[in-house]
Amino acid sequence: xxxxxxxxxxxxxxxxxxxxxxxxxxxxxxxxxxxxxxxxxxxxxxxxxxxxxxxxxxxxxxxxxxxxxxxxxxxxxxxxxxxxxxxxxxxxxxxxxxxxxxxxxxxxxxxxxxxxxxxxxxxxxxxxxxxxxxxxxxxxxxxxxxxxxxxxxxxxxxxxxxxxxxxxxxxxxxxxxxxxxxxxxxxxxxxxxxxxxxxxxxxxxxxxxxxxxxxxxxxxxxxxxxxxxxxxxxxxxxxxxxxxxxxxxxxxxxxxxxxxxxxxxxxxxxxxxxxxxxxxxxxxxxxxxxxxxxxxxxxxxxxxxxxxxxxxxxxxxxxxxxxxxxxxxxxxxxxxxxxxxxxxxxxxxxxxxxxxxxxxxxxxx
Length: 365
Known about the structure:
single chain; alpha/beta; Rossmann fold; seven-stranded parallel beta sheet; 12 helices; NAD(P)-bd_dom_sf; Male sterility protein; alcohol-forming very long-chain fatty acyl-CoA reductase activity
């Protein structure tokens, strides 16, 4: 019986990229994309484009309205039975990717949504694998080296996004330890494609890039802490997609947690210097206390408008965690996937930003 592949989070970035790749590597498989009602029109347009680009996948995907925050993913009994009865692979990609997300929304989508997906996985007659996308920032603000197998190290969290993704990963790990076939993927900060720079949104490091790009020949960059000693781990989107697509069927990834982070990330200072160099600026760093910066952005009239970055971003300019990706790098070597260095993809990142200034910062929710 052919495998059914369930995708949550379509037509978001990862679902849009991974759905055709998955159907191409499994020619007999069909896909079910679980879509929120309000995104159905966009999902139809996206699917039509994917099928036009790759005729071999045409007619093999059904779009189904649902909601991961509801028991049974908001599906009727017939739909649930159809998913449970045959071989089932699940790509759980849906989450709230927003550093400023309120606690109730983050908990509902990231934690309860994951519980509901795991419940479906546990009830499947033949689960091929649950492919779960977490984040490196389950580390919270752990002050030191955080490996792929680390999760509970007494860390604190900068925001509800980190906290709820940590709680959601705990749900998945518990299921894995109980025998559910799982691979957990932990991307760090995802930026544009390494070759084209294309991205769906400008957030995270793009706030620093935008601040530098808006200024004259000398770009003043206020930075908290010691920016030469803090790593900013960012990876291009095509690396994340290539890694998940290659590892999803790979036996060596079964039961593993893989950190899709850069092996040699730039420091915050090196990142800002590269942005300045690629925009033809000279960088002038102004040291500022983190607490003062946060207060000024949130409370002083005009400051937030000038800097145009949310105060939640400041935590990542003083992020104390270093990600150990040695085991992941070895695993990716087996499938021929390599993470480009920052020097290799920063040029494309800056060029795309320059040529497409109207891209927003909002993620799908």
